[in-house]
Specification:
The complex is a heterodimer.
Chain A: H1 3-12, H2 15-33, H3 39-52, H4 57-74, H5 76-82, H6 91-139, H7 144-161, H8 166-180, E1 183-184, E2 191-192, H9 206-222, H10 245-250, H11 252-267, H12 273-288, H13 299-315, H14 317-323, H15 329-340, H16 349-352, H17 354-385, H18 390-409, H19 412-430, H20 436-458, H21 470-495, H22 501-508
Antiparallel strand pairs in A: 1-2
Chain B: H1 2-26, H2 40-58, H3 69-92, H4 94-108, H5 113-134, H6 143-148
Helix pairs in contact in B: 1-2, 3-4, 4-5
Classes of the chains: A mainly alpha, B mainly alpha.
Amino acid sequence: MFDFLIQGFGVALSPLNLGLAFLGALLGTLFGALPGIGPINGIAILMPLAYTLGLPAESALILLAGIYTGAEYGGRMSSILLNVPGDAGAVMTTLDGHPLAKKGLAGPALGLSAVSSFVGATIAILGLTLFAPLLAEVAVMFGPAEFFALMVFAFASMSVMMGKDPTKTAIGAVLGVLIGTIGVDSGTGVLRYTFGMPELYDGIDFVVMIIGLFAISEILLMLEHANRKDSDGDIPPLGRVFVSLKEVLYCKGAMLRSGLIGFIIGVLPGTGASVAGAVSYTTEKRLSDKEGTFGTGDMRGLAAPEAANNASAAGSFVPMLTLGIPGSGTTAVLLGALMLYNITPGPMMFSERPEVAGGLIASLYIGNLVLLALNLPLAGVFARVLTIPRWVLVPGIAILAFVGVYQLHSDLTAIYLMLIIGVFGYLLRKLGFSLAPVILGYVLGGLMEQNLRRALSISGGDVEILWRSGISLGLWIAAAALLILPWLLPKLISKLQSSSKPLEQVEDD
Amino acid sequence: MKLAADRWLGVFLIGLAAFVAVQAVRLEVPFSYDPVGPKAFPLILSLLLAALSLVLVFKPGANGHWPNRALAVKLLAVLGVLLLYALLFTRLGFVAMSLLAITALARIFAASWGKALLTGVLMAMGSYFLFTHGLGISLPGGYWLDGLV
């Protein structure tokens, strides 16, 4: 049953792939530590350049996965040192991380964050190794109707869990799916929404889409802080560089519990690192904060969200690899990257392309070790990256974005499209949308339509096929429950306030 | 005032949904064995978009802060630089155009002239060699530089 893993380690331990895992981890940490560049931006900017290396699919994926996990790591630095979370997943890290830095314990805080990230990620990668093949075996039985229902469920869960405003999350996803319909319709060859422009016949290129949406809109957004100092002061001195074993053991309960929580939340589609961080922090606060030290620089309050958000990052690979449904915006980008290599992730991948599935999982083990080895001694070096001024950073991103898009077809139309999409992304962010649903919609939309049409071709147009099987019916009901519960629950809670014992559990879930 | 932006957005999106739907209906589809065809999916999406936009019109949410005039000018300046960069990319060549664009961007992001020029020179040259020699990407019009070195 674990043949794929043995084969995977064979792939991942080749000198080239080992080097790429190292390079990915290093680049990812650097880009993640850059002020204002979260993991998703880091991947968006580096991905097109990874293509120019002409790597085979499994090597490219190993590089990208290294960048992904590295960027999750690097993103914590600005949270701890500057009190500026690099992305939504790092918000909880600031609560106890920054007070620790202010106490003169910045070095140990960074070290502890590296260790707890390692522990959380390890738990999740073990979970991934165990559950992904099992889930893939179940998912082999999925037909087009089941996949369609699964995607409806994924979008429902995303609307409820992701972002602050469910309506806007859903609108963002629909807009993303609509952008995905541009181009030749694969079923009939009809041109949709191309408005006579030959450049649009192939649809909007994935690389153009993510660079425009993330990198260009980020540049525009950074203007607001062009003159403002990022932090309320300089980077605090790191103090002693290593975290002591005693401190690590003090947090072991928090790490293990949060790693498990993070993995489970990561597996659910649409719920990413931010939810994992918040749930683990509040759980840990309730369980172990006896003296009320959480929020004032308690090490457990730092270890919990760090273990959880890295666990959720690895956990979100489960639905992506086995079902082809990404669990987060970042895995949606990785999924798109795989599709560029003509690999559609899904249950068949474990049997048909075991070198890709196994190689990726094995490289996560290796990358995780590499990251720990890099981050403990080099924290001081990476912390320097935070002081790079914006007038160096912004032109750098602009050049990487331009060249990344230009090298696709040596064509300027793609660059104009990138700029238009960048303005679109900026406006969306200004209007209170988050971009992850847009990219998820863009990546999943095409698959959703294909599966819908395949299902209805099988049934000859009878829509009943969409909910005929038990699996798809269950998914439809789950999706409906997700959308209805947030409306009903508050009323139910107020009704049952007196006999509220069982409801506390409902809230915890 | 802030809430009004979402109302306008909702109205705009309903317009977009109508546009999407009209375009979908107008598609001319040759005969095929596909019972759904290319029209249905965009139509479903436009209905969904219209419904969600109606929610937005009646229950507007919070927005970010909109840029003031000084910021808006800078925003247009950045977009202008990026557009010019694209327009002149092949004509002036990567190195020359990047130097100009980097210097301009650095200036907009509050660097002094000296720092901006230094960044421009170093980054344009450095990235040229990284991209062409390191990653094997062919970039336009930088050939005169090879002659110099």
